[in-house]
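Q: Predict the assembly, please.
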Amino acid sequence: MSDAVVLLSGGLDSATALAIARGLGLTPHALSFRYGQRHAGEIEAARAVARQQGVEHHTIVDIDLAMFGKSALTAALPVPKDGAGLVPGEIPITYVPARNTIFLSYALALAEVVGARDIVIGVNAVDYSGYPDCRPEYIAAFQQMANLATKAAVEGSLTTIHTPLIWLSKADIIRRGLSLEVDYSVTRSCYDPDVEGRACGRCDACRLRLAGFAAVGIPDPAPYQPR
Amino acid sequence: MSDAVVLLSGGLDSATALAIARGLGLTPHALSFRYGQRHAGEIEAARAVARQQGVEHHTIVDIDLAMFGKSALTAALPVPKDGAGLVPGEIPITYVPARNTIFLSYALALAEVVGARDIVIGVNAVDYSGYPDCRPEYIAAFQQMANLATKAAVEGSLTTIHTPLIWLSKADIIRRGLSLEVDYSVTRSCYDPDVEGRACGRCDACRLRLAGFAAVGIPDPAPYQPR
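A: Predicted assembly structure:
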């Protein structure tokens, strides 16, 4: 068994990426971040996903991204609903500056410490929000940098960043996850849940997720606020 | 005046890099990290350097690298003295996994938030400890990744990472800093200072620093423990 660091947000995508990594026979070291996000229920969802999938190693890192402001996910800005604020070709306000770069940097450090050569991240370039740090060319550049950054790399243990979802539609991600027995009822994708953790059903993340389940032809088992 | 994020550890190198950035007419946003290092006096030194150089913006970020263990700088491992443990071609135990990658990732986020296109880091590839994330090829790869990572980059505001010290000897770094009126008495380089913040004079960082001052022919104004 080989070790892999798996970034786990508690959302639908990362839960599926984790299941794929396990299906490949990798021993996952799940890594989650409490980064001042409004939707702090993410961490509880990440814990539940890790539990459901029998993950033995789960690291939760506290980082202060809220200080960097400027995102509707960390600052007191309204989360766009029903597609409002979405302009084709433009990056939405829910973008968090350099978030995946910071997350992958911690993943690289953890990988070096636990002796993992593989990092798994559930980014997607099909049904996604247009964030630049979800694109394959970004991931490739990060991997190149990573393999110049560490003592492990210098000593010959190169890092591979796996993006098993990158070319899948949201519906195909769900189909793949169901075939691996992912329990999507414990995952949370919403950018603006209520105090009970129920999804709004109207933010970009909910819209992508609901469209995915609709395309598969099954209901989303996660809880939603009454409309 | 253009804004630049300057990584500031409080050591000799970063104090000089800051002075060079100021000399270029850049408005510095100094960025320091409290990362569980044994030599926590670094933060006080960084504050003193920022004060001495009239820096208006100084951000100190708390990050938990100590959890990643495995370095003599963050874990309860002895700091090598008098060149012990140094093997030519090997990376010393004071290496911290992915440290510069994490630091530069935060710098990238801060640069995007404050609208800075420039990041300054005082890495050096001449009189240095052999850390892989101080090499020019690493910095180049980070810059390439950075310019695929952010909304700012996608919108045309590319990031340049400046390494003004990279090809300077320690002595030339000191000469350059003195010409820019850097007060080296407030900088701290030691990996293992005593409780009064006095340098040990024997760790790798002290040895490189003392050799640099010796080559310039002046005494190091920073405080040292009695031998």
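Chain A touches chain B at residues 59, 61-65, 67-70, 91, 95, 97-102, 104-106, 108-110, 112-113, 132-133, 135, 137-138, 141-142, 144-146, 148-151, 153-154 (CB under 8 Å). The beta strands of chain A are 2-7, 26-34, 57-62, 118-120, 160-162.
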